[in-house]
Write a structure and sequence with these properties.
Length: 229
Amino acid sequence: MSAKQVLMNDSKAPIGILGGTFDPVHHGHLRLAMELATDLKLAQVRLIPNGRPPHREQPGATPGQRAKWIRVAIADEPRLALDDRELMRKGASYTVDTLASLRADFPDNPLCLIMGRDVFAKLPSWHEWRQLFDYAHIVLIERPGLSATYAPEAAAELEQRSSENVDDLHHNLAGVIYNYAPPPLAISASRIRQLIASGASPRYLLPAAILDDIMDSEIYRSPTSEAKE
């Protein structure tokens, strides 16, 4: 939902922002969101599917399909919410615009933008990237086996803003970089798409209802693939 959503108990705790193509959403996304909500004591984690991501190829699934899958996946979990504001907005999906919109909706809640350390390393290539720190904290996700070579400007921000104290996310509205290492769960949307295209089964990598919908719609299927369920 793009409109302001009432948080549980009118909480002023931080709100997590987890963006991505979600093409498709899977247990890796969902479990990470739950771990963050619990460990960082977030009021909510909002899953925001990209509309037109400027730094990667366009999603294979339609905006409506990706939003529906998230809605189905989180239907029984109040700590997670679908936020479709990027799908509703025309033009490229710049994160700074999304955060400005969220800040207007939630003026009293700290915002925590969640991203991988490898993504942060290239942050200076983003549109108006320095303004991100005016709107939100950044929570860096440690991914086993991935190394990152930081752009000099990103390295400088990391050195200046890093904190190991989760309370800093609660006591400031924005500007902190917090490092977080979730329990490893190696699942990727690209791997799921590859399995489906080759006719192999990705069962148990994503919610069953979403896999069933994908197979019924034949999205990601190559012309010669056959389901091996």
